Amino acid sequence: MARGIIFKNNGINELSSSPTGYKYVGYNGETFSEKNGATVSSIGGGSSVNYTEYKALITQTSTSAPTASVLNNTLGSGSWSYQDIGVYYFTLSSAFSDISKVEVFIPGSSVLGYTMTNQAFNLYSISRIDSNIIEVRTGQVWNDGTSNNYAKFNGITGVTDLLVNGLLSYTPITIRVWS
């Protein structure tokens, strides 16, 4: 399997005879190779990725739509909306039409039935609803110390549905659509 890494020469590590530029070191399973160049594309590293991306830190309070501090957006101008308690939509017209090319990330937890007393666990899910909508759900599981309390969250069965507002606070989210 071929592998490689690209270094930015900042003049400190002296990766090349020039204090600026890039160095590529590759391995094809048998031999090592290296290239130097002024830009990543000049050494064959390419300058583009095979996806468009929306990356943001989202915050939601009360019954308001989430707000986003956008870190990177090559996907297009979408909008956030509040749907119901713990349910929020990111809408962008026809951006998610091919489900096999949509990739979504949000940090979360799958800890249910944890036995530590008086602990709340925040749960997050993210999924593609249709060609226009990505859905984010937030919920909470609480252990009151008397028994393991389970919640129904995004298809996990249990005592009750514990979707909750206000759990997103600069929570990172990434939506990618591969070409």
How far do the termini sit from each other? Answer: 24 Å
Judging from the principal axes of the Cα atoms, what is the shape? globular
Total E-strand runs: 13
- In the predicted model, the low-confidence regions spanning at least 5 consecutive residues are 11-19, 109-117, 152-160
Question: Taking all residues together, what is the mean pLDDT?
Answer: 73
Main β-sheet description = 4 strands, antiparallel
Strand order of the largest sheet: 5-4-13-8
Radius of gyration: 22 Å
Portion in beta strands: over 45%
DSSP helical segment count = 0
What share of residues is helical?
Answer: under 10%
Number of domains: 2
Explain the overall architecture:
This protein has 179 residues and is mainly β. Helices cover 0% and strands 46% of the residues. The chain has two domains: 3-43, no CATH class; 51-178, no CATH class. It is globular. It starts with a strand and ends with a strand. The relative contact order is 0.18.
In short:
The chain is 0% helix and 46% strand. It is built from no helices and 13 strands.
Secondary structure layout plus pairing:
Blueprint: E1 3-8, E2 22-27, E3 32-37, E4 51-59, E5 67-73, E6 79-84, E7 87-91, E8 102-105, E9 119-128, E10 133-143, E11 151-152, E12 160-161, E13 171-178
Parallel strand pairs: 11-12
Antiparallel strand pairs: 1-2, 2-3, 4-5, 4-13, 6-7, 7-10, 8-13, 9-10
